[in-house]
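User: Could you write out the 3D structure of this protein bound to zinc ion? I've included everything you need below.
Assistant: Certainly. Input first, then the structure.
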Amino acid sequence: MPELPEVEVVRRGLERWVAGRTVAAVEVLHPRAVRRHPGGGADFVARLTGQTFGVAMRRGKYLWLPLEGRDLSVLGHLGMSGQLLVQPTEAPDEKHLRIRVRFTDDAGTELRFVDQRTFGGLSLHETAPESPEGLPDVIAHIARDPLDPLFDEPSYHLALRAKRTTLKRALLDQSLISGVGNIYADEALWRARLHYERPTATLTRPRSAELLTHVREVMNAALQVGGTSFDSLYVNVNGESGYFDRSLDAYGREDEPCRRCGTPMRRRPWMNRSSYFCPRCQRPPRLPS
Ligand SMILES: [Zn+2]
C-alpha cells in the first residue's frame, strides 16, 4: 500500500500538472475502477466532463481533486497498485489503463488512472458540510494527519491517553490520527524505543509528544527521498515497486542487527500483518499480575 509520503508526492504532481485544467472527455475502460462512484460509470463521465480541476488535496492517505466552483471532488483511491499518471497524449496505453481524462487545452498531456489489480479507482463526492478544505463527505470522519499544520496535538495526546488500546493500534486508528501505516508505525516506534503493545494509557505526555515527533521525522525523510520524482512529467504511485528507496531501521529487518544496540531484530504477527522491533530497545510492557 502506498503510504502518506508517496501519496503526498502524487498530490504535488497533480497540483503541478493538472490544477486549472478543464476536462474535455472522460473514458472509463473498466467498470470496477468507478464502482465507488454512486451513480455508475456513465454518470461519472457526464458529471466530470466540462469541469475544471482545482488544486489537489490530501488528508492522510486520501487524495482528492476539487472541481472549481462546485461542491464536488474526484476522490482517488490508490488501493494496492493504483497509479495516477500524467502522460503525453500520444504515449501508448498502459496495459492496465482503467480511466483516461482528456483536457481542453493543448498542453499535450492527459491524466490516466492505471491499476493492475483494480482495488483502487476514482469517484465523485459532494463536499462535507462546513469543511474549509473541501473534504469529500465520505472521508469526513478521517482525522488530520501529523503533517497537517492544523493537527491538534493537545487533543491528540488526551485522546490517546483516554483510549483503552495499545500503541500501534492507536497509531493506525484513522479516527485519532490519519496517514500512519504499518511501515511508518514500526519505524517511529523503533526510534522512540517503544513497544507496539504498550497500553496507550501508560504513555506520559512528553513520551507521546516524542513519538509524534518521530512519526513526523520518518515521514519527512521519506518525502525528501521521493521529492525528486515529482519533478518529471510522471505522477506515480505503485504499491509494489514504486516505493521510495528509503532506508528503514525496523520494518523488514527480521534477524538483522538493531542499528542502535546490535541485538537481532524480531518480527511478530500482528493483526494480519507484522510488527518489527528490537527486543532490547523496545521492551514489552509488563503484564498486570
Ligand atoms: Zn536495539
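The pocket of zinc ion is lined by residues 258, 260-261, 263, 278, 280-281 (CB under 6 Å).
User: Perfect, thank you.
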